[in-house]
């Protein structure tokens, strides 16, 4: 595929790891920030908002499809299921569905979001380490594919499958125990990970083979060997182990019992620059090389990418409420902090974010630059989006943008200090040189904050009495 694939979105995804859409994405983002200020989505009264680049999301979806289309034998069934946990917003799921991307859900809530978005049950996969009986029943009744996590969950499936037939493809999650990456909290294939059946544990491999031979309805193997911080080669190794297991099960069953491999998600995102690297095409190529046979057409495939589809297409924009100085350090106090960038604030070393500076009109701020802290609004000193960052000197009324926050950031509001969830707006060209916005999620109101905090139960504690006492 040397010359590069032209995707429907216009992005060129060649073999060099660069992505021709990267520069255009930055231009679109700058235009959207200016338009958001101009159109009043942001201002003194609305000091923070989140923006989603519809064009960019479509491009990423197209790049994912193109990468696997180019790699697999013609006719191979491939379901790309977006990991809903990455961006649990109904309009995003609908957009991806329209782009041919289904949904990977991991709770009753995520299943409900995917259904609200209109994703067809046969384009969903239900993975979760703690599925309840009720959740399993619902998934099986709908025909949603289920990947069991452990032997006890398989026992439950035994009972449910016996009680009533289901269209749901059923699988088992395995943990190839190939090791972790640079971020412990997102390393899912360590020796002691909580996910799946640990394949290298004494007797486990054989146990899994038997579990399949005993259950003719078990037809899928699932692995998700990591997320941000995991080298691609390690992910490919996890898929290779899973493939080897499928081959052994099928050989001993004497038929193609395992017909689908779910290879999970986990493609890392480059948070350090605008370059899209690694690309889906690179990962697909690596998989083809490391796991000969994977793409040959004998197995259908499911993927579950989350962060890599959405991260780059989200931007949090926040007003600089005050600019001050402390101990010689400049501090811009903004409205984006721990409530929107929880991981970055609590683990800044693992989750650094790029910050862009804009003036009060939303135009990219020219120099002079200065070393600054970008602080959030929460009342603890560690609430910093960035520390000691060299940026154009921020002043009161300017805006900062936290880039690449489309996954696991503003859609994952953290209610510290009862800070309100910001509005989320999608943007796209309006057809006449400007930018059009559409509401994706309403900003949370103060009344909603009170209600969500038990406002209907004011006297609950003051009227409580110990039983039997008067
Ligand atoms: C979180 C998760 C994903 C998505 O991971 P990303 O790093 O966002 O691509 C996919 N599958 C499972 C089972 C997950 O838990």
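^ Assign residues to that structure.
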């Amino acid at each position: 595929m040397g010359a590069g694939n032209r995707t429907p979105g216009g992005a060129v995804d060649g073999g060099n790891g660069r992505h021709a859409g990267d520069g255009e994405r930055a231009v679109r983002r700058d235009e959207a920030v200016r338009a958001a200020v101009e159109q009043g989505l942001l201002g003194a009264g609305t000091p923070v908002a989140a923006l989603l680049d519809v064009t960019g999301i479509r491009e990423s979806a197209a790049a994912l499809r193109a990468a696997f289309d180019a790699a697999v034998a013609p006719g191979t069934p491939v379901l790309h299921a977006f990991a809903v946990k990455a961006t649990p917003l109904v309009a995003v799921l609908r957009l991806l569905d329209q782009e041919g991307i289904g949904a990977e859900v991991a709770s009753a809530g995520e299943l409900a979001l995917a259904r609200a978005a209109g994703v067809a049950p046969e384009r969903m996969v239900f993975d979760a380490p703690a599925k309840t009986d009720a959740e399993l029943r619902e998934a099986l009744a709908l025909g949603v594919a289920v990947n069991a996590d452990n032997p006890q969950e398989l026992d439950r499936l035994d009972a449910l499958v016996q009680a009533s037939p289901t269209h749901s493809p059923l699988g088992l999650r395995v943990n190839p125990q190939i090791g972790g990456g640079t971020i412990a909290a997102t390393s899912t294939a360590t020796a002691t990970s909580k996910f799946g059946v640990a394949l290298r544990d004494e007797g486990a491999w054989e146990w899994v083979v038997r579990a399949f031979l005993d259950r003719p309805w078990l037809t899928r193997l699932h692995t998700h060997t990591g997320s941000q911080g995991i080298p691609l080669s390690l992910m490919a190794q996890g898929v290779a182990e899973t493939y080897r297991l499928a081959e052994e099960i099928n050989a001993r069953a004497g038929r193609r019992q395992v017909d689908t491999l779910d290879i999970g998600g986990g493609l890392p995102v480059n948070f350090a620059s605008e370059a899209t690297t690694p690309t889906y095409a690179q990962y697909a190529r690596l998989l083809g090389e490391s796991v000969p046979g994977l793409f040959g057409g004998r197995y259908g495939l499911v993927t579950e990418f989350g962060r890599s589809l959405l991260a780059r297409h989200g931007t949090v924009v926040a007003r600089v409420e005050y600019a001050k100085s402390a101990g010689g350090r400049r501090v811009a106090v903004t409205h984006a902090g721990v409530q929107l960038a929880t991981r970055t604030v609590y683990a800044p070393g693992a989750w650094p974010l790029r910050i862009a500076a804009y003036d009060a009109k939303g135009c990219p701020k020219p120099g002079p630059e200065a070393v600054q802290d970008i602080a959030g609004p929460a009342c603890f000193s560690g609430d910093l989006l960035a520390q000691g960052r060299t940026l154009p000197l921020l002043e009161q009324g300017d805006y900062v943008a936290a880039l690449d926050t489309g996954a696991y950031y503003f859609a994952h509001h953290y209610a510290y200090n009862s800070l309100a969830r910001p509005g989320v707006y999608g943007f796209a060209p309006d057809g006449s040189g400007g930018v059009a916005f559409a509401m994706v999620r309403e900003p949370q109101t103060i009344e909603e904050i009170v209600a969500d905090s038990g406002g209907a139960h004011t006297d609950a504690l003051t009227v409580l009495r110990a039983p039997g006492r008067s």
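The mean pLDDT is 93.
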